Amino acid sequence: MEHPSASNMNIEGVDDETKQNVDDRFIANHQYTSSFPPPPEGEEKVEIGQNPPSPPTSTEFIPPNGGLEAWLLVVALFLIFANTWGTTSTFGAFQAFYIRDLLSTESTSAISWIGSVQAFLVVFIGVFAGPLFDMGWIRPMVFSGSFLTVFGMFMTSVSHSYYQVFLAQGVCVGFGSGLTYVPTLAIVSKYFTTRRPIAIGAGAVGSSVGGVVFPIMFRQLQPRIGFGWTVRSLAFINLAFAVVACVILGRHAGQKTRQARSLVDTAAFRSAVFVQWTLALFMLYLAYYVPLFFIVSYSRYGLGSGEDFAFYMLAVLNGSSTVGRTVPYLLGQKVKPIYTLIFSSLLGVILLFSWIAVHTRPAFVVWCVLWGFVAGVLVTAPTSTVAHPLLSPSLDVVGTRLGMSWSAASIGTVIGAPIAGVLVDVSTGNFVHGQVFGGAVMAAGAAFLIWPLIAIERYDRRKG
Question: According to its UniProt record, where is this protein mainly located (predicted)?
């Protein structure tokens, strides 16, 4: 899951002309001024014994919208996404192994809490990372976050009990991931304007690449070299990615260019449209991780397939999410992001309920490909939608409203899979109750999107 950005540097859905007008007004209001009256036109004021004042130099950052430095930042974003969302989306492979072997004495729900907390912290810590980026703390966040992610993976490799795995993989990796992905996403957004959708889409592919490579590595290496060295192998890849990303990002010193945004906009609670939008994200993310965490277990125990097929299905799902992650950014100028979001939500409802009827391997492969697309859209489309003036009345509150939305989504993330874990019975291959739960809550999320969709359409027609 590449959750979307919690920083107000990443404002999708707002045209560049509007942003330029805001920048022009800012510059115009901050020109050089003096407490003395200006000299008559054609004359120059010079103090006795002093040199004539030099004209003020502009310190405004001009986005290059390309070039070596900017595209290197996209490379760093790709590597960070592979380490954060790529690792998080691999938890289904870990969960299947924990259920069968390492943590076999624990309940399915308890094991699900490990991955749920990891995913929750990626989003929740990201909400706070946005204001910290605005305060110029990009280096400390990226360096410390990369260290915690790698350290957590190495500690997971030597864990033998539930609390050890929970602290290492759930808390440490999740916390570190939350510190790194938002600052990187924000600085890429800062360096690109018209090419921003392409840049962010290219970087977001890293999460899909990690989600494909890591489960396959886990499956191929674990029977040969054991759990410990398998996880350490993944950790070494995380380390290599982190080092390269830190070298690139370390060249950019943090600079406080504006006041850090507030974490809460109380006016949002008086907006019925925004409240329903937030409830929609909460419901959608209650269902989001149910297939992602249980796809390997369902393939193995629900379909009775071999372990190779089961683990490859997770890679197939993560690979197909590449399309879903990039489509909202590429279509953002032609198709309203909320249409993309509600279409994928309705498709998700159909898929989750039809999952009950999937009993053959070919049908399950098709199902995984389609769900991967839905999962990718659910990660990226909300970020583009919340920038609409009806959800964010001004550019000053886009970051705050985005952070509030994802805070609600993160709560759904942390409790959805554990609830499904209580409802499924892995030992007998009975997943029906968990599948119904996922479909029902996603249907509720799609229903809550209807009023924001109508309100946005009315607003655009009135302003158009």
Answer: membrane
Tell me, what amino acid is at 439? G
Q: Are residues 315 and 200 in the same domain?
A: no
Name the burial class of residue 324, with classes exposed (0-12), middle (13-18) and buried (19+) by CB atoms within 10 angstroms of its CB: buried
State the maximum Cα–Cα separation within the chain, in Å, rounded to a whole number.
93
Distance between CA atoms of residues 43 and 86, nearest Å: 64
Please tell me the distance from the alpha carbon of residue 370 to that of residue 351, in angstroms, as a whole number.
8
Task: Say how many C-beta atoms besides its own lie within 10 A of residue 36's C-beta.
Answer: 8
Tabulate helix, strand, coil % of the chain (nearest 5): 75, 0, 25
Q: Could you tell me if 154 and 193 lie in one domain?
A: yes
Please answer whether residues 446 and 282 qualify as being in contact, where contact means their C-beta atoms are separated by less than 8 angstroms: no
pLDDT band at 254 (very low <50, low <70, confident <90, very high): low
Do 141 and 213 lie in one domain? The reply is: yes
Examine the domain organization and report whether 190 and 328 are in the same domain: no
SS3 at position 425: strand
Q: How large is the C-alpha radius of gyration of the chain? A: 24
Task: Please give the share of the chain, as a percent, with pLDDT higher than 70.
Answer: 83
Cβ atoms of 326 and 196 closer than 8 Å: no
Ramachandran quadrant class, 230 (left: phi over 0; alpha: psi -120 to 50; beta: rest): alpha
CA 142, CA 124: separation in Å to the nearest integer? 16
409-434 confidence digits (pLDDT tens): 889 989 999 999 999 988 888 999 99
Spell 426-447 as b/e; 16+ CB within 10 A means b.
Answer: beeeebeebbbbbbbbbbbbbe
Q: Shortest CA distance to 156 belongs to which of 147, 148, 167, 145?
A: 167
Interval 292-351: pLDDT, tens: 889 988 998 889 888 888 888 989 998 998 888 777 667 766 778 888 889 999 999 999
Last residue of a domain, one of 224, 259, 294: 259
Residue 401: which domain range? 261-464
Closest CA to 30 of 61, 62, 60: 60
Domain boundary among 236, 259, 282: 259
Question: What residue type is 155 in one-letter code?
Answer: M
3-state secondary structure of 180: helix
Domain with residue 67: its CATH number is 1.20.1250.20
Amino acid letter, residue 153: M
CA distance between the termini of the chain: 35
